[in-house]
Specification:
Blueprint: H1 7-11, H2 16-29, E1 35-36, H3 48-58, H4 73-87, E2 97-100, H5 103-114, E3 120-125, H6 130-137, E4 141-146, H7 162-167, E5 168-173, H8 186-199, E6 202-206, H9 228-231, E7 232-237, H10 238-241, E8 250-254, H11 256-269, H12 275-286, H13 290-312, E9 325-329, H14 336-347, E10 349-350, E11 352-353, E12 364-368, H15 373-385
Parallel strand pairs: 1-10, 3-4, 3-5, 5-6, 6-7
Antiparallel strand pairs: 2-8, 7-8, 9-12, 11-12
Helix pairs in contact: 3-12, 4-12, 5-6, 5-11, 13-15
């Protein structure tokens, strides 16, 4: 007997990355060596000192019981210490921090926390596909904010209609940006705070790549702008900063009312994270950050090697300012999906077609700097052999 899906599940958009993984898997089954640059899955292990802390903490019998619903106080205090050290932002651990099961969970939950059926959310295009998942579950509407090269992949607030600004209840932002790898400065976030105050909507800043800025530039936190906690929150994950993607540990910080809404929905869905992982996460946030510095250096070195070779074969590509992605313009005569399929089928290099991130992602593919320099150079050489580009 088959039981029909609920209407809520039927509203969910197709899971973009699942289709990409399926295509790659089929070719691997045929025995092909695929260089996988399509997903945002860190390829390096969690730093050993964090792993050792988890092993040690796992022996604590207090953690073998249910954890506090809203997380241990020591982890929330560690989050506050982290934000004070890294960004000069003061937070109240009791009211301005929510512990989450990965930021993907929070990015879906936020729409269910703040949006009613028919409410309007302002959404970047291109953007992380799972923003839309939560919006659909909430039966809300969207107004898209195009991110274009002409505007440095920042939304043009002057182009948003007055009616959309008045109706908006929630705005999604993400810098350093997935998929474009663009960054935002304090002037942009200051303007965002002013706009949100004027029109009384909440800002959600997805800061997943907050540690990954290049050329000596530290990415800006939304909460560094004056008044930001009055109008929004920021979500941060340990997945990228500490290569802890499989651990599923993240947090939201900022506006106390929004933090309470996240805590409330999680009270009904989860019983917090394993305490040993919370202790290891607190340790990661508060101990020596050399591992983070080394990680940024690794990605920057990979970027320089990969971009350098692509430019040498005649592909004019921009240099990413942050994240571990490269946003590559598609050569003339191809759609994003056609070009991604060509790279996969002929060069055995997997990238993500830009149209999977939204209408304004058409004309680009996204590649992750998520393999060794040698493999990234191998990918560039395989692309070169396709004969599409002309050397300068």
């Amino acid at each position: 007997m088959d039981f029909p899906f609920s209407d809520a599940l039927k509203r969910l958009p197709e899971q973009f990355f699942a289709g990409l993984v399926h295509k790659v898997g089929l070719l691997e089954k045929e025995g092909h060596d695929i260089i996988k640059l399509g997903q945002g899955n860190p390829d390096l292990p969690t730093p050993q000192h964090i792993v050792e802390k988890l092993k040690e903490a796992s022996d604590n019998p207090a953690y073998h019981k249910y954890s506090p619903f809203r997380g241990f106080d020591f982890l929330k205090q560690a989050v506050c210490d982290f934000y004070d050290r890294e960004y000069g932002v003061k937070l109240d651990p009791t009211t301005e921090v929510a512990i989450m099961f990965g930021s993907k969970t929070g990015l879906v939950e936020i729409s269910q926390c703040l949006l009613n059926p028919g409410d309007l959310a302002l959404l970047p295009d291109p953007g992380y596909p799972d923003y839309m998942s939560g919006i659909e579950l909430a039966q809300a509407r969207t107004s898209l904010m195009p991110l274009t090269a002409e505007n440095d992949f920042l939304p043009d607030y002057d182009a948003i209609s007055d009616s959309d600004l008045e109706e908006a209840k929630l705005m999604f932002l993400n810098y350093p940006n997935n998929p474009t790898a663009a960054t935002a400065d304090q002037k942009f976030f200051d303007k965002t705070v002013e706009l949100a105050k004027e029109h009384k909507f909440c800002v959600l800043h997805d800061f997943a790549y907050g540690a990954l800025g290049f050329d000596g530039e530290k990415p800006q936190s939304f909460l560094q702008s004056e008044g930001s906690k009055e109008v929004g929150i920021e979500m941060y994950t340990l997945s990228k900063t500490y290569n802890m993607a499989g651990w599923r540990i993240a947090f939201a910080v900022g506006n106390a009312s929004v933090i309470e809404s996240i805590n409330l929905i999680q009270d009904h869905v989860y019983v917090s994270l394993f305490g040993g992982m919370q202790e290891a996460a607190a340790y990661a946030l508060t101990t020596d950050q050399t591992c983070v510095e080394e990680l940024v250096h690794t990605y920057e070195s990979r970027r320089d090697a990969f971009i350098g070779h692509l430019r040498a074969i005649g592909w004019e590509v921009p240099e990413p300012k942050g994240t571990f992605f490269v946003w590559l313009p598609v050569p003339r005569g191809y759609t994003s999906e056609e070009f991604a399929d060509l790279l996969l089928e002929k060069a055995h290099v997997a990238v993500a077609p830009g149209n999977g991130f939204g209408e304004y992602g058409e004309g680009y593919v996204r590649a992750g700097l998520l393999d060794t320099e040698e493999r990234l150079l191998e990918a560039a050489m395989r692309i070169e052999k396709l004969g599409i580009f002309s050397k300068a």
